[in-house]
């Protein structure tokens, strides 16, 4: 599974390792969280079942028969406590449930069972900043800023800084449809971090940035962490997770299989992925 393996990052481009600091009070508590997706109209695989409950019949009323429902258990019984001042890497192979977990903690997906408590509204990078391709960068910064709760005045004050951070230049006044994917993700990052959120979640958002932007965004993340925020960072790059995080969670098939010091968990995950990929690929992890 080569998509699980990052071999592009030059070790010299990596930031210095984040500094460990004493932990603050809890910011996120996840208690026996289960998230199960229900996919309608699937014909095979998974735990497919016919619509039999009253609820299933009620929600299918008036709709054409789309066939049976498949349940996909994406997160299964995950529990952990995160603290202020921690940056936590989330590791796991494709489809293991990392994005689902982040979306649930961010409040974008209701738990099927279990509970999530947060000390503030988490900000999931790249989702809260849903950018509109037909509008200019400037308009998108305005809308994004207002969506984050900034006043008109604050938004106007922030436009030059965001544009500079995202290195837009004159593209600030062009529709985002003319941006490269790297530029768009830089802008998304810059908008999402206009405010220093208490809980920041990043789902591979830095993957499209070039090395110099990666350095800059890492510095910004460190700034947020230094202000006692909590950062969650999902990445397939073990080297970035080691550099940017102090702790890591490893999720496999929706189950939390390891939670602890970033190096210990990253070593165990590395060994697991290497073992899996030996047969199919010779690529190496960073
Ligand atoms: N909207 C959805 N509807 C149904 N199933 C979904 C949905 N989104 C994700 N899944 C399934 O849930 C499981 C977990 O997916 P998720 O996207 O959370 O994994 P991931 O660890 O983020 O993977 P990747 O590394 O590829 O980003 C997978 O089996 C996936 O197929
Ligand atoms: Mg994902």
UniProtKB/TrEMBL annotation:
Which family does the entry's similarity section mention? Belongs to the ABC transporter superfamily.
Annotated region described as Disordered, given as residue ranges: 1-25
UniProt key word Transport: yes
Protein name per its UniProtKB record: Teichoic acid ABC transporter ATP-binding protein
Keyword entries, A-Z: ATP-binding, Nucleotide-binding, Transport
> ABC transporter domain spans which residues?
56-278
Q: Which GO terms describe its molecular function?
A: ABC-type transporter activity; ATP binding; ATP hydrolysis activity
Which Gene Ontology cellular-component terms appear in the entry? membrane
- One Pfam family cited in the UniProt record for this chain: ABC_tran
Residue ranges with Acidic residues bias = 1-13
What organism, scientifically named, is this protein from? Brachybacterium ginsengisoli
């Amino acid at each position: 599974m080569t998509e699980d393996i990052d071999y592009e990052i030059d070790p010299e481009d990596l930031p210095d390792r984040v500094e460990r600091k004493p932990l603050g009070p809890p910011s996120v508590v996840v208690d026996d969280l289960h998230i199960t997706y229900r996919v309608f109209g699937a014909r095979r695989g998974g735990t497919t079942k016919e619509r039999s409950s009253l609820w299933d019949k009620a929600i299918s009323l008036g709709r054409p028969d789309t066939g049976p429902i498949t349940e996909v258990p994406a997160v299964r019984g995950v529990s952990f406590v995160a603290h202020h001042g921690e940056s936590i890497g989330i590791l796991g192979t494709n489809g293991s449930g990392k994005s689902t977990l982040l979306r649930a903690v961010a409040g974008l997906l209701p738990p099927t069972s279990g509970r999530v408590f947060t000390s503030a509204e988490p900000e999931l990078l790249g989702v809260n900043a849903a950018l509109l391709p037909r509008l200019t960068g400037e308009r998108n910064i305005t809308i994004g800023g207002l969506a984050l709760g900034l006043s008109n005045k604050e938004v106007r004050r922030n436009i030059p800084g965001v544009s500079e951070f995202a290195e837009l230049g004159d593209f600030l006044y062009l529709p985002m449809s003319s941006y490269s994917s790297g530029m768009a993700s830089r802008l998304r990052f810059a908008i999402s971090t206009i405010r220093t959120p208490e809980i920041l979640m990043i789902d591979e958002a830095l993957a499209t940035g070039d090395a110099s932007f990666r350095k800059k965004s890492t510095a910004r993340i460190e700034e947020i962490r230094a202000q006692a925020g909590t950062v969650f960072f999902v990445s397939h790059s073990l080297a970035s997770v080691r550099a940017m995080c102090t702790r890591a969670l490893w999720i496999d098939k929706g189950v939390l299989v390891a939670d602890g010091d970033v190096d210990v968990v990253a070593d165990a995950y590395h060994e697991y992925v290497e073992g899996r990929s030996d047969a199919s690929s010779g690529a190496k992890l960073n």
